[in-house]
Amino acid sequence: MLDEIFNISSNNATDKAPKDSPRTVSKDEFLKLLTYQLRAQNPLRPYDNQEFAAQLAQFSQLEQLTQIKSLLEEHININYLLTKTISNTALPGLIGKNASSYTNSIRCDGEKPVEINYQLNYPVASGELIIKDSNGNLIKTITLTNDQLAKGDHKILWDGKDINGNSVSPGQYSIFLNLKDSQGKNISVKPFISGKIEAVRFKNEGTVIVINGTEVALGDIFDISTDNI
After folding, report:
1. Is 179:186 a contact under the CB 8 Å cutoff?
2. Element of type H or E holding 30
3. DSSP secondary-structure letter at 179?
4. pLDDT at residue 68 in the model
5. Mean pLDDT lowest for which of 28-37, 47-56, 103-112, 211-220?
6. Angle between the 27-40 and 49-90 helix axes, to the nearest 10 degrees?
7. Are residues 215 and 107 in contact, defined by beta-carbon separation less than 8 angstroms?
8. How many Cβ atoms from other residues are within 10 Å of residue 168's Cβ?
9. Structural domain boundaries of the chain?
10. Is residue 148's pLDDT more than 90?
């Protein structure tokens, strides 16, 4: 009888939902249907006790699963807050340590050269470092030498000047390594910066670390040490 009531309810909703859309009965709906079933049954032909007991067992299981889900969600939230609290407490202790972080953004003050690092796992045929301002305008293109295309760790010093040799304004600039193999195919290599951790900032979008005036995501840092860089 419960199935019949459910079918009637589903047929009445055909104008609001596609026929092939899945129908999920909530805990409250299940209880209402069960109550209606008891009220509507024929006293001279009481409902099948075995099937009725099975439906009560289903309701009990649904209630238990709902409670388990709530407990798990609460447990996850507590662990997240605990982890965040421990992390936020420990991170300020990193200030003053040396770190390296992948980034496509650097800060230039217009006076000192800016150091940009990258690592090649194998030699490449050609490459260049492209520098743009915050509006996406091309500032400078630095062609890499043969030594800078060889396997290993490399550093590029940008003098803070644009294509015309003029000093750029202080601010953030984006960097991109355009590398190609002997077949002319692009090779993906992430540039990174290294320096002392100057600050730790807690933002809505997540925790960031400040290295050489540049904010980097905590997850982009791949090395922290007390050694001199």
Report:
1. yes
2. helix 27-40
3. E
4. 81
5. 47-56
6. 160
7. no
8. 19
9. 2-88, 95-225
10. yes
**Could you give the count of Cα atoms lying within 13 Å of 110 in the half-sphere of its Cβ?**
7
Q: Report the pLDDT value the prediction gives residue 17, as an integer from 0 to 100.
A: 47
For the stretch 105-122, pLDDT in tens is 999 987 889 999 999 999
Q: What is the DSSP letter of 17?
A: S
Give the 3-state secondary structure of residue 102. strand
HSE, CB side, 13 Å, CA atoms: give it for residue 163: 10
One-letter identity of residue 7: N
Please count the helices (runs of H) and the strands (runs of E) in the chain. 3, 12
Q: Please tell me the predicted confidence (pLDDT) of residue 72.
A: 80
C-alpha to C-alpha distance for 101 and 84, rounded to whole angstroms = 21
Rounded Cα distance between 224 and 19, Å, is 58
The yes or no reply on domain 95-225 and CATH 2.60.40.4070 is: yes
Token pair listed for 209: 């670390």
Distance CA 7, CA 1 (A): 10
Map residue 186 onto helix, strand or coil. Answer: strand
Q: Pairing mode, if any, of strands 114-120 and 152-158?
A: antiparallel
